[in-house]
Amino acid sequence: MPETTTAPSLDDLLRIPYVLDVQAVEVAPGEWACRVGYDELPGCVAEGRTPFDALTRLERLRVEMVTELYEQGKPVPAPRAPLRV
Question: Domain of life here (predicted)?
Fold first, then answer.
């Protein structure tokens, strides 16, 4: 009997572990911020004064983006493979 595949649920898609890109950026002379993002989700980038602030903003944005793609019936990008040490 052939195996049936079902489309992933929104909950499944929201559990995808994307590789986090973190940078310290100078936003003004002598003023630094933490910029975080997921390269696989274009535009999914956030900044904050602390890594926690930036990550909190990024996660909100990621949930919004994945939910919107899901509701529009568009594919949600898969994460890239993590770097190996």
Answer: Bacteria
Q: What angle do CA 77, 64, 37 make, to 5 degrees?
A: 60
CA dist 24 and 15 (Å) reads: 26
pLDDT (average), residues 5-25 = 91
Domain ranges of the chain: 10-71
Q: Is the pLDDT of residue 3 over 80?
A: no
Asked if residues 48 and 30 have their Cβ atoms less than 8 Å apart, the reply is no
Predicted confidence band of residue 65 (pLDDT cuts 50, 70, 90)? very high
pLDDT at 79: 84
CA distance 71 to 30: 42
Token pair listed for 71? 């509701």
Taking the whole predicted model, whether its pTM rises above 0.90 is answered as no
Q: Under CATH, what is the fold of the domain 10-71?
A: Double Stranded RNA Binding Domain (3.30.160)
